[in-house]
Amino acid sequence: MNHPLPLWTLLLLGASSALAVATPACDPPVYDITEEAGPPPAPTDAKSDVVVVDTTTCLACVDAPDMPGPGCGNESAACQADDQCSSLFACVLASGCIGGPPSTFITCALPCANEAGGIPASAAALFECLANGACAKACVTK
């Protein structure tokens, strides 16, 4: 037994057919990659624009008072008072997440967040201060 197609189905098929005819074929460029991608070469002289972040300097900033600043002392104290946050931050430090760009910090910290059972508000405030706030110059590269 044949069932007639509803009108909306016929309209949709007609519109998609017309669109397919009117749209030129997509021809993406082909790239030939012969070498494996790797990290960029290390700088060879002191005049390089590579920025190195010292974890000790970063942590000193994180523990410094917010006022007069720069520091994340309020956020750090709130994090240390929260067991979930303090274990998350300890994992972030142990994993070496400090020192790269903010996007790398976030990617690096995600497994720690999963291990800690999530990101408590105190950790979010500390990480915001560390990666984008008062301590960004001491803790991440741009």
Explain this structure:
- It is built from 7 helices and no strands.
- It has 142 residues and is mostly helical.
- α3 packs antiparallel against α6 and α4 (83-94) packs across α5 (102-116).
- The longest helix has 16 residues, at 7-22.
- 22% of the residues are buried.
Summarize the helices and strands and which ones pair or pack.
Layout: H1 7-22, H2 55-63, H3 73-80, H4 83-94, H5 102-116, H6 121-132, H7 136-139
Which regions are unreliable across 5 or more consecutive residues at pLDDT < 50?
7-23, 37-51
Strand content: under 5%
Order of H and E elements:
HHHHHHH
Fraction of residues in helix:
40-55%
Provide the gyration radius in Å: 26 Å
Mean pLDDT: 75
Report on the biggest sheet.
none
Tally the helices: 7
Could you give the count of β-strands?
Answer: 0
- End-to-end distance, in Å? 67 Å
Structural class: mainly alpha
Shape: globular
Structure summary:
The protein is an all-alpha fold and 142 residues long. The protein has helices spanning 7-22, 55-63, 73-80, 83-94, 102-116, 121-132, 136-139.
Descriptors:
mainly alpha, 142 residues, 54% helix
